[in-house]
UniProtKB/TrEMBL annotation:
TM region positions: 241-264, 271-292, 304-325, 456-474
Primary gene name: Chrna9
Residues in the signal sequence: 1-27
Record's keyword terms, sorted: Cell membrane, Disulfide bond, Glycoprotein, Ion channel, Ion transport, Ligand-gated ion channel, Membrane, Receptor, Signal, Synapse, Transmembrane, Transmembrane helix, Transport
Official protein name in the record: ACHA9 protein
Any Gene Ontology CC annotation: postsynaptic membrane
Compartments where found: Synaptic cell membrane
Domain called Neurotransmitter-gated ion-channel ligand-binding: residue spans: 35-238
Organism per entry: Cephalopterus ornatus (Amazonian umbrellabird)
Domain of life: Eukaryota
């Protein structure tokens, strides 16, 4: 037990001694850091380029790390991104011998104490022109200064929404010096592309790359070259949200439009269904218009909405025309011969359209028609019998005028006149019934024409809706 207690005592004593030594070293380095800082900045000025020869170019290495995409405003064409901007250069007046300062090789100091390159975002679209974040810089003994500064940038981006919501965008971030030309400050790419290792995945956009290109441009105002580095952010939109909230409802609603032709004409809901579908698509069109910029490039989904609305407008107009054909009554002209052949004979068989009130499983209509024809023949037979009786009556009257008395003759003549009036009334009623049946048959024919045209337009518009839906999906792919 005594040996264990002694060993633990020695271990504790060793740890305490080590902590005292480290603290002494840190305090010694802190002492040298203060002394180094006072000596370096005694005669230092951060207003001038830190080069010993004014004709020498100062190279600034630039590296951009994309951390997050905050917002893509398509309507105003502004990209908001969270960046980490790293700049490094060599200051000829901030060097020291680290052996003289107990091996101190680097210090952290506020960035406003040293000279900084005025590298800005050329295509900035923010109203805030404040100074960069005043973070510390890392100063090494060989004069190398590294400045890491976070920044939330708003840059202008030309947005092409022709294939929205299946579009890809390319947004440029151009960095360059605002006052120094290429003979004074030159910008060098640290990497061939932006750093995406710390990118936070966005819910709306996929990042497919961020290549960097150095450009040297000579502007019209000046003869000196001005270098810049352009980072091209390649974005691909995640379209699942827009498919389920904008495109799929439109496709489902558009398939309701052809069903308006399948509704019975007597229901009174054919036109109201088309108008309701048209209003629903108008609401979706307004939602898309609020998102998209007011440009000449109509998005793909907007074209689909416009085509569908045009189709529904045409279907509603055709429905009104077909309903007028359906309600043609006795005052209308008979169905033309070409319409009888094309529509009633051929198209009705192709689209399985039968007479009004008839279907393919109930042949009751034919039996009723046969009974009506039989009834008409019976009435005609009765009418002929009455006429034959009348003729026989006349013969008897002519034969008996010489052999009977005058009273019997009068009675016979009166009876004959009654039969004549009865025959005239029956003929009048039969003619009225015949005309009524003809007018009714004319209306039935027009109703059948309207029904055939309804079925024809229904299949035509179904094919159009399917074709437009397949076209938009094909363009998206």
């Amino acid at each position: 037990m005594k040996r264990k207690s002694l060993s633990s005592f020695y271990v504790s004593l060793g740890l305490l001694f080590t902590a005292v030594i480290l603290k002494a070293v840190e305090s010694a380095k802190g002492k040298y850091a203060h002394m180094l800082f006072n000596e370096l900045f005694e005669d230092y000025s951060n207003a001038l380029r830190p080069v010993e020869d004014t004709d020498k170019v100062l190279n600034v290495t630039l590296q951009i790390t994309l951390s997050q995409i905050k917002d893509m405003d398509e309507r105003n064409q502004i990209l908001s991104a969270y960046l980490w901007i790293r700049q490094s250069w060599y200051d000829a007046y901030l060097k020291w011998d680290k052996d003289k300062y107990d091996g101190l090789d680097s210090i952290r100091i506020p960035s406003n104490l040293v000279w900084r390159p005025d590298i800005v975002l050329y295509n900035k679209a923010d109203d805030d022109f404040s100074e960069p974040v005043n973070t510390n810089v890392v100063l090494r003994y060989d004069g190398k200064i590294t400045w890491d500064a976070p920044a939330i940038t708003k840059s202008s981006c030309v947005v092409d929404v022709s294939y929205f919501p299946f579009d890809s965008q390319q947004c440029n971030l151009t960095f360059g010096s605002w006052t120094y030309n290429g003979n004074q400050v030159d910008i060098i790419n640290s990497l061939d592309s932006g750093d995406l290792s710390d990118f936070v995945e966005d819910v709306e956009w996929e990042i497919h790359g961020m290549p960097a290109v150095k450009n040297v441009i000579t502007y019209g105002c000046c003869s000196e070259p001005y270098p810049d580095v352009t980072f091209t952010l390649i974005l691909k939109r995640k379209s699942s949200f827009y498919i389920f909230n904008l495109l799929l409802p439109c496709i489902l609603i558009s398939f309701l439009a052809p069903l308006g032709f399948y509704l019975p004409a007597d229901s009174g809901e054919k036109v109201s269904l088309g108008v309701t579908v048209l209003l629903a698509l108008t609401v979706f069109q307004l939602m898309v218009a609020e998102i998209m910029p007011p440009s000449e490039n109509v998005p793909l989904i907007g074209k689909y909405y416009i085509a569908t609305m045009t189709m529904i407008t045409a279907s509603t107009a055709l429905t009104i025309i077909v309903m007028n054909l359906h309600h043609c009554g006795s005052e209308a002209k008979p169905v033309p011969q070409w319409a009888r052949v094309v529509i009633l004979d051929y198209m009705s068989k192709i689209f399985f359209v039968y007479d009004v009130g008839e279907n393919c499983t109930s042949p009751k209509r034919e039996k009723e028609e046969e009974r009506r024809f039989e009834g008409d023949d019976g009435c005609q037979r009765r009418h002929k019998e009455v006429r034959n009786d009348d003729c026989n009556l006349r013969e008897k009257l002519n034969g008996n005028l010489h052999g009977v008395q005058s009273e019997n003759v009068r009675e016979t003549v009166n009876c004959c006149s009654c039969y004549k009036m009865l025959i005239k009334n029956i003929e009048y009623i039969a003619n009225c019934i015949r005309d009524h049946k003809a007018n009714r048959a004319k209306g039935i024919e027009w109703k059948k024409v309207a029904k055939v045209m309804d079925r024809f337009f229904m299949w035509i518009f179904f094919v159009m809706v399917f074709f437009m839906s397949a076209l938009i999906i094909g363009k998206a792919a």
